[in-house]
Amino acid sequence: MRIEQDLKLGFKDVLFRPKRSTLKSRSQVELTRDFTFKHSGRQWSGVPIIAANMDSVGSFEMAASLSKHNVMTAIHKHYTVEDWAGFVKNNDASVLNNAMVSTGTSEADFQKTKDIMALTDDLIFICIDIANGYSEHLVEYVQKVRAEFPTKVISAGNVVTGDMVEELILAGADIVKVGIGPGSVCTTRVKTGVGYPQLSAIIECADAAHGLGGRIIGDGGCSCAGDVSKAFGGGADFVMLGGMLAGHEESNGEVIEKDGEMFMKFYGMSSESAMAKHSGGVAKYRAAEGKTVLLPFRGPVENTIQDIMGGIRSTCTYVGAAQLKELTKRATFIRVQEQENNVYGKE
Ligand code: 5GP
Questions:
Q1: Active-site residue numbers?
Q2: So which residues are the signal peptide here (predicted)?
Q3: Which positions of the chain have pLDDT values less than 50?
Q4: Which tens digits make up the pLDDT trace of 19-33?
Q5: CATH architecture of structural domain 15-335
Q6: Residue-level pLDDT at 24
Q7: Ligand 1 pocket, mutate which of 12, 54, 55 (most atoms under 8 A from CB)
Q8: What helix, strand, coil percent values describe the chain, rounded to 5?
């Protein structure tokens, strides 16, 4: 047994220190980033926020809406190939270039990914997603997907430490997805005692990835626009959001009326709800590692995404970053023991 004494931080442990700035208005801040990915050589330009591949967030409708802002959506893996065929027929490259095809690591997943990618050249992102990215099997699977799709952008995860980020990039991933346990409907830390504070995971994994020319997605744990900024400030190239984009018209969750008010169901992808829906219940050998919540129905996602982008722009003006790309260079985090003042309730 070993104890690491290094300090590890979550979003709630820090704030940005304001810095002098020549920016007059948040409208001067550019959130668009241009990436050329390491293995595929692909270029992508957009606002590097991604709706999570959860089945009450990452829907086709979400992709159509968010792509208007060049924001990405990782489409959940429960659509059939026929569903995808319908989606690619009605939507142009501006939507499809911003949609990620999610997959697990089974033989059937591999075949399904091949079938979906064969529908159109406009799909360029593959998101290989398993809860425990430390499995040797993931590395082999990334190599296999890279060999099959040399020119597609491959994301793989989830991991939280630099050693594994390096291994996945060397195996062929352009992007590594970072986060174990921080998610809003995740109970991994409670059920297993495993996890890593998300801001430190991002800082350490970004450092490892950037050294090799790879990119990372900070996945999970953002509860407000300020957290999204902190993830970018810590070095995340992309930030993935589940709960912040759930509960909207486009989230495609089940709507429930209770005492005249509308709610939408939102659940973790390893929750009992998800396993009941997609795998016929929780298998005997495992425990559910996600929960189910009812969120007040929030209408179209447009206002929320504008609000998030407005918050990030504002962060940039406070620290003097004219572009999102500069935010991490301009970021000095101060450790704090308080965040917002909740005297009149929570925002
Ligand atoms: P959020 O933005 O809601 O805090 O986090 C979203 C992320 O939580 C997802 O992208 C995914 O990585 C993670 N997640 C989703 N469902 C589950 C689950 O059932 N269990 C665990 N451990 N993580 C989940």
A1: 186
A2: none
A3: none
A4: 998 988 888 999 999
A5: Alpha-Beta Barrel (3.20)
A6: 86
A7: 54
A8: 40, 20, 40
